[in-house]
Specification:
This protein is mainly beta. The chain is built from one helix and eleven strands; from the N terminus they run E-E-E-H-E-E-E-E-E-E-E-E. The relative contact order is 0.26. Residues 4-121 form the CENP-V/GFA domain. GO terms for molecular function: carbon-sulfur lyase activity; metal ion binding.
């Protein structure tokens, strides 16, 4: 297994996966656009039981386009979003790919919420797409 380790910008929050991610994807929903400040988020999913997270996180809760309650975990020192939790997917953590120590490990498989796609945002047209999640 490749080493899926990562951290926030200042290094106060760190994580390590003990198993391969379940899924890697891009999300074009409006919440992900706002969290990342661009047209999509790049995320991978890990089971919380296979993940070690150290450091203090603060969480902001919101209702997603699908109606699930999403908690966005971010570092209170540098403000960097690290991962999200969703009421629709208990036991799973959705990590932001750019927080990886080696972001080249991220290989997106799908694109979700293309209904919210922004015309200025380019996404690989060879990826499987879903209009919603």
């Amino acid at each position: 297994m490749s080493s899926f380790k990562g951290n926030c910008i200042c290094g106060s929050v760190q994580y390590e996966l003990k198993a391969e991610p379940q899924l890697s994807f891009l999300c074009q929903c409006r919440q992900c656009q706002r969290i990342t400040g661009t047209g999509h988020s790049a995320e991978f999913v890990a089971l919380s039981k296979n993940t070690i997270v150290s450091g203090e996180l603060k969480f902001y809760e919101m209702t997603s386009d699908s109606g699930n309650i999403v908690s966005s975990g971010f570092c209170p020192t540098c403000g960097n979003p690290v991962f999200k939790k969703s009421s629709g997917y208990p036991g799973m953590l959705f990590f932001h790919a750019a927080t990886l120590e080696n972001p080249s490990l991220f290989k997106p498989q799908k694109v979700f919420w293309t209904a919210s796609h922004q015309p200025w945002d380019f996404v690989n047209p060879n990826l499987e797409v879903k209009e919603h999640a």
